[in-house]
Amino acid sequence: MKDKEPQIPSKRDLEKWEIINHDLLDWLYSGVTGKMQIKGHNIIHEWSDYLDNQLCLEIGCGHGHHVQFSKPNKKHYLGLDINFKFLSEFIKRHSNYPLILGDAYKLPFKSNSIPCAISVYNLEHLKHLKNSLIEVQRVLKPDGSFFAAVPAEGGLIYGLGRELTSKPYMEKKYGIDYDAIVKYEHCNSFLEIKKALTIHFEIKKIRYIPFSFLPTYHLNAFVCFNMKNNKLNN
Hints:
This protein has helices at 11-27, 31-48, 65-70, 84-93, 129-139, 156-164, 166-174, 178-185, 190-200; strands at residues 56-59, 77-81, 99-101, 114-120, 140-151, 201-209, 222-229. It has 234 residues and is of the alpha/beta class.
């Protein structure tokens, strides 16, 4: 899987995006979309809860939405993000959770040291997805768990939902080319992410949101993966 350069929006839109993307993170947790996103957090927490007495690393913790909606044990949670502003906001909202400023492409941990890692609505943003997954695989223990939730980018329902909600909202409120921003931000589609995960991890379970009884990304908005490290098989 080759790393790819995302399409670049205009300089004006990028400058605006740097200012407003913090607001969008919170807005996306409102309404119907928000309920589905929260469901993804709940599923990830449900899967990882049995590891509550072990360290669980969240890669791309952002403002702390996983903590907000799932309330993991503070003693065994560690949040990591490369964006200092996001971590600062996290601290304001949720005190006493341990956080670290770090790079998903070069995780600041020893090999075979992390029992559990999670990533919630983050993998779609990684321009060098393969490099990040290799790093997750490196730091996880040989029998470690990796849980991830991603949008069904490229699917029919997800695309329709964007056309009816976030696109008109963002374009009307901020006057930006939202399609260009999305192509820049969501540089990995669902199928690309699934293919990459299959290479580096053993997928144990897949849950679709909101229609778990319809196991296709085209008819759902978000997808959760329950995985085991397969480094021993490589």
